[in-house]
Structure formats: structure tokens, C-alpha cells
Design goal:
binds flavin-adenine dinucleotide, about 25% helix, Rossmann fold, alpha/beta, 17 strands, 7-stranded parallel beta sheet, 2 domains, 5-stranded parallel beta sheet, 8 helices
Length: about 350
């Protein structure tokens, strides 16, 4: 009987040699999936001088790093990268392959899925493996690709039963980063890069990048405002409270759409996923798409004038009342205490 490959692969994304956090988060998740599948976890590292990065993947449980290292691969370009992964996946047929739902991952994953006729689900919020009975047939080791669907009204479990390789993309911050206490003694397997004229279709002449100044993911305290704050001026209260507590300011999509706050501070399904020690939600209803980005905060305090607001379902402490009146009281108390 043909032996089915049970390996889990993670594409490790880098820019100028700096890895994307999401790649390590995916390795942490991939480690668990590989254990459940009884397969190996492998990282796929493409770039120029990326051996040190390949070794870093062992800290997150990769047993093998498949490395394609060449000067020509220093910067991501669709053609050589997708061509390389197409060949690797086609030849070795991993059971699962994960990519960050980043600009690069979103460019790469669909091309590989289409070339290798693999399944692919974008923006998964949870991944598991399980045997599944579907249409009266038994399928082994399916990847349960779990994500909100139909505008976030349901949480769907998507399966790709008829393919060998099941792929998923996951946004940064969704999976937990869990370095191993003792790194795995992994091995590096070098795969030679064979240039192809097609690779030169696009040449990188110059690149200009603007780093995002807001780092919500690293903030231990986040004070977030919603549409319930009513005006941009009222958001000053949120900034004042956040500054006092040494925290960051965030908001809902409704607050972003209303122009109260910039999009780089949006928390939720189409924003950033955060896990701070404390999340103070002011005038936020707690729609599922917002909760998806903050419900794993250690402690959540919610202020809302509607006692039935869904945010109270995930809050550890709830205050029913007018946020515009309550936040200044918070500020006063903290000013006294922190003096
Ligand atoms: C595909 C998709 C993706 C989405 N992605 C995101 C996302 O990433 N992030 C996100 O946040 N949303 C997202 N949304 C939108 C989401 O469904 C909600 O519309 C949004 O989160 C609501 O924002 P809100 O809570 O600020 O506003 P509202 O839902 O309008 O709630 C305002 C709340 O403020 C309360 N309130 C009113 N006045 C006061 C007051 N004076 N004091 C205290 N409380 C008051 C009200 O009782 C109410 O609960 C997405 C939607 C879709 C369809």
C-alpha cells in the first residue's frame, strides 16, 4: 500500500532576512498538528543567506528545514518563489502546508494550491486534524480549516477531502507563539535553485517600505473605543486613559469607518489580533468580528450603555453606563493612584 506523507510544512517568510512573526506562530501550531498526524514538521525557507533563520525554526519544533538559498532569491518575487514551492510540494506531497495571510502569503498560497491541485482556505482562525466521515465516506487526517464565514455570521469548518495536500493561510497573531523549552535538533536540507528565464519576468529595481509605527500586538494594555463614543473628539479620552496606563489605543471597524481612528489600530477579523494583559472596551458592542481579535486578552473590562451588549459575554468586568462620563472617572482615579 502506498505510504501517505503525513508531514506538516510551514512557509517561513522573510524580508531582508527578518522573519515574519506569523511564520513562527504557524510553526508552533504546525508542531501540534504534526504530533496529531504522527508526521514531521518541516520549515520551508527561501532567500539569500538564510541558514541562521532556518536554524531558528528548530526552536519552534521544526525537525527539518528545507532551504533554498541563492542571491537571486534575496527578495520575494512571485515567479521564482512559487515555482520552487510548486516543485517541492508536487514532488514530496506534504499532508498540510501553512502560510501567513500576509501580502506574500496571499500571493503565494493560491498559486501553489492551483498548480498542485491542493485545497486552500484563507484566514483560518483555528486548525485541527481529525478523521472525518463525509458523504458516507471515511477520510483520514483531514485538516479542519476553521474560520468565520457569511460575513462572520457562522463559524465554518472547511475540509478538502479529495486532495493530498491541504493548505491554509492564517493572519498574524491568531495562533499562539510557543517556542519549545528545548529546541529540536533539526537538520537543514539544501535544495539547489535552478534559475529559469521566467523568474526574470519581474525585476526588483528599488523598494520603499514604511514600517507600521503602531504595534498593538506588543502592547500589554489596550484601551479600545467603538462607535458608541460618538465623535472623534471623544476619542481623546481613550488616548488620555491609554497614555496614563502606558497602553496603546485601538478601535473597532465602525470607529475606523466613522473616521474616529486610523485603520492600523483596528482590532478584529480584518484588523489586528491582540492578546494584551488588559483590554478596556469602551462603547463597543462586541460583534463577533471584533471579538475574534481581542477575546483572548487576559482581562477584559467593558463599558457599554446597553446591558445586553454582547461584549459583556466575553468581559471579566462590565460597567453599564455612559462611557463618556465613566472614562474621565477612570482617568481621575488612576491619576490619584499612579501619582
Ligand atoms: C467581514 C467583516 C469583517 C469585519 N471585521 C471587523 C474587524 O476587524 N473589527 C471590528 O471591530 N469590526 C469588524 N466588522 C464589523 C463588525 O461586524 C461590527 O459592525 C463592528 O465591530 C461594530 O463596531 P462598534 O462596536 O464600534 O459599533 P456598534 O456595533 O454600533 O456598537 C456601539 C456600541 O456602543 C454602545 N454605546 C452607545 N453609546 C454609548 C455610550 N455613550 N457609552 C457606552 N456605550 C455606548 C452601544 O450600546 C453599542 O453596543 C466586520 C464586519 C464584517 C462583515
Amino acid at each position: 500500500m502506498e505510504q501517505i506523507n503525513k508531514d506538516v510544512w510551514v512557509f517561513v517568510e522573510q524580508r531582508d532576512g527578518k522573519p515574519a512573526d506569523v511564520s513562527f506562530e504557524l510553526l508552533s501550531k504546525g508542531r501540534k498538528l504534526a504530533d496529531n498526524l504522527k508526521g514531521s514538521l518541516k520549515s520551508v525557507v527561501i532567500g539569500s543567506n538564510v541558514n541562521a533563520l532556518a536554524e531558528e525554526t528548530f526552536k519552534y519544533g521544526a525537525e527539518e528545514a528545507i532551504v533554498v538559498d541563492d542571491e537571486a532569491l534575496g527578495h520575494y518575487r512571485t515567479m521564482p518563489y512559487s515555482r520552487i514551492i510548486n516543485q517541492l510540494v508536487e514532488n514530496e506531497k506534504p499532508r498540510v502546508m501553512l502560510y501567513g495571510a500576509t501580502v506574500i502569503g496571499r500571493d503565494l498560497a493560491p498559486r501553489v494550491a492551483s498548480y498542485t491541485k491542493s485545497g486552500l482556505t484563507a484566514d483560518c482562525t483555528e486548525l485541527q486534524v481529525s478523521d472525518v466521515k463525509y458523504l458516507r465516506k471515511d477520510f483520514k487526517d483531514l485538516l479542519l480549516q476553521i474560520r468565520p464565514a457569511f460575513g462572520g455570521n457562522i463559524i465554518a469548518t472547511i475540509i478538502s477531502p479529495d486532495v493530498q495536500t491541504q493548505m491554509a493561510t492564517v493572519r498574524e497573531g491568531v495562533m499562539r507563539l510557543e517556542p519549545l523549552e528545548k529546541p529540536v535538533k533539526g537538520k537543514i536540507r539544501n535544495v539547489e535553485y535552478t534559475p529559469d528565464p521566467l523568474d526574470e519576468l519581474v525585476k526588483l529595481i528599488e523598494q520603499h517600505r514604511k514600517e507600521n509605527k503602531v504595534n498593538l500586538k506588543a502592547a500589554p494594555i489596550i484601551v479600545a473605543g467603538g462607535y458608541g463614543l460618538q465623535t472623534k473628539e471623544n476619542f481623546v479620552l481613550i488616548y488620555e486613559l491609554a497614555e496614563l496606563l502606558g497602553g496603546e489605543v485601538a478601535g473597532t471597524r465602525a470607529a475606523v469607518d466613522a473616521g474616529f481612528i486610523n485603520h492600523d489600530r483596528q482590532v478584529g477579523q480584518t484588523g489586528v489580533t491582540v492578546r494584551p494583559k488588559l483590554y478596556i472596551a469602551c462603547g463597543i458592542s462586541g460583534a463577533i468580528q471584533h471579538r475574534a481579535g481581542m477575546q483572548e486578552a487576559n482581562k477584559i473590562i467593558a463599558i457599554n450603555s446597553d446591558a445586553d451588549a454582547p461584549i459583556f459575554g466575553v468581559a471579566h468586568y462590565g460597567i453599564v453606563g455612559d462611557a463618556i462620563e465613566i472614562i474621565p472617572r477612570f482617568i481621575n482615579v488612576f491619576k490619584q493612584r499612579l501619582r
